TrEMBL record:
Species per Swiss-Prot/TrEMBL record: Streptomyces endocoffeicus
Keyword line: Transferase
Gene3D superfamilies: Crotonobetainyl-coa:carnitine coa-transferase, domain 1, formyl-coa transferase, domain 3
Keyword Transferase part of the UniProt annotation: yes
GO MF annotation terms: transferase activity
Pfam families, per database record: CoA_transf_3
Family annotation (PANTHER family): BLL6097 PROTEIN (PTHR48207:SF4), SUCCINATE--HYDROXYMETHYLGLUTARATE COA-TRANSFERASE (PTHR48207)
Name of the protein this chain belongs to: CoA transferase
Alphabetized InterPro entries for the sequence: CoA-transferase_III_domain, CoA-Trfase_fam_III, CoA-Trfase_III_dom3_sf, CoA-Trfase_III_dom_1_sf
Length: 392
């Protein structure tokens, strides 16, 4: 769908590479510009997760892209980049605010020679403001944005979510902004500066509870395990006799039937929120009496909203996950067989596949220089001076 769109990526860690991977999956020609030592994610990975010496963290966010190595402190290297960017449709960067300007690659510098350029900056807090120079990282933003304080039972420590969901949502918002800008360019002929940041992404994830708060409704974390400060019971995870199960937003009439507990019929609808802790406690007592399989069968029969509490082993074996082909397998020349989450959207029933393996460092430097019209002698000169480097 994005065939013919050239994206030049100055990104690292997760938010930026994930955003560019979404575009690359859709057919954009993503050229990842890396320093001589390689992008950060090549030498870092979660629980020291390296396969055959290759970072899983790098592999999960850089498929379908090409890699060029450029010394950004070298004038010839920067001249090559400006030549590349003069013909680009999109620049996406995730440096701290001000870095690209200092390199002579800021929006105002580049739009003078390429007014059609869509320029996307991804940051922690935004390109200006009192926090612009603070380190922006997922768990820090979860804490700052109120997300951690809203999660967990009353009296427990504030609890960050167990995944970098703010990074990932920031990536999706960045890709969304780029696609909107490209669509707008079709009408105006002009590029746009697009900005996404982790703080905005974290607040956008809390659209519903934050809206309640902004309009005078105050909620508190639940002592009995309700998973939202603003929802009625049941809404959360309950212990069974041999495990756990999640139950969500079920009427008191239905609860009375499925739990065989007439007490639920005595609750007036306008009292359900005020009595949510009592309701949850009653539900918890009943669910604890029987094993998980008993409740899954009973809840299914009565059309109660429920779900098993899966760990990742359960998730990847789940029949719907398998049916959706959510996990893809790639064969990497160094790491071997690697399984990764696939592109999350289907188009005419199909997910975009693998066109290019996550690139080796500098794998496509010569190829890109050749496309820019550099002669063999000029490419050799750039390599010898260290302005650029290739995989060899």
């Amino acid at each position: 769908m994005l065939s013919g769109i050239k994206v030049v990526s100055f990104t690292h860690f997760l938010q930026g590479p994930s955003a560019t991977q979404l575009l690359a999956d859709l057919g954009a020609d993503v050229i990842k510009v890396e320093p001589p030592q390689g992008a950060f994610e090549r030498s870092w990975s979660g629980p020291d997760a390296y396969v055959g010496g290759v970072s899983v963290f790098f592999l999960l966010g850089n498929r379908n892209a090409r890699s060029v190595v450029v010394d950004l402190k070298n004038d010839e290297g920067k001249a090559m980049l400006r030549r590349l960017l003069d013909g680009a449709d999109v620049l996406i960067e995730s440096f701290r605010p001000g870095v690209m300007d200092r390199l002579g690659l800021g929006y105002e510098h580049l739009r003078a020679t390429n007014p059609r350029l869509v320029y996307c900056s991804l940051s922690g807090y935004g390109s200006d403001g009192p926090y612009r120079d603070r380190p922006g990282q997922d768990v820090l933003i979860q804490s700052l944005s109120g997300l951690a304080a809203a999660t967990g039972a009353a009296g427990a420590h504030p609890t960050p979510v167990g995944a970098s969901l703010v990074d990932q949502h920031g990536a999706v918002l960045g890709a969304l902004g780029i696609l909107a800008a490209l669509h707008g360019r079709e009408r105006t002929g002009e590029g746009t500066r697009v900005e996404s940041n982790l703080l905005n992404a974290a607040l956008d994830l809390q659209l519903e509870p934050l809206s309640y708060f902004l309009n005078g409704f105050r909620g508190e974390r639940s002592a009995s395990g309700i998973s939202s400060p603003f929802y009625k019971a049941p809404y959360g995870v309950f212990a069974t006799a041999d495990g756990h199960i999640t139950v969500s937003l079920t009427s008191t009439d239905a609860l009375a039937k499925v739990l065989d507990e007439p007490w639920f019929n005595t609750i007036e609808p306008d009292q359900e929120y005020a009595m949510r802790e009592h309701i949850n406690a009653r539900i918890a007592d009943r669910i604890a009496e029987h094993p998980t399989e008993y409740w899954t069968t009973r809840f299914a029969e009565h059309r109660i909203w429920y779900a098993p509490v899966n760990d990742y082993a359960d998730v990847v074996a789940d029949p719907q996950v398998e049916h959706n082909k959510t996990v893809m397998t790639i064969n990497h020349p160094q790491a071997g067989e690697i399984r990764l989450p696939a592109h999350p959207v289907r188009y005419d029933g199909q997910r975009p596949g693998l066109r290019r393996l996550p690139p080796q460092l500098g794998e496509h430097t010569r190829e890109v220089l050749d496309e820019l019209g550099y002669t063999s002698a000029e490419i050799t000169q750039l390599l010898e001076t260290g302005a650029v480097r290739d995989h060899g």
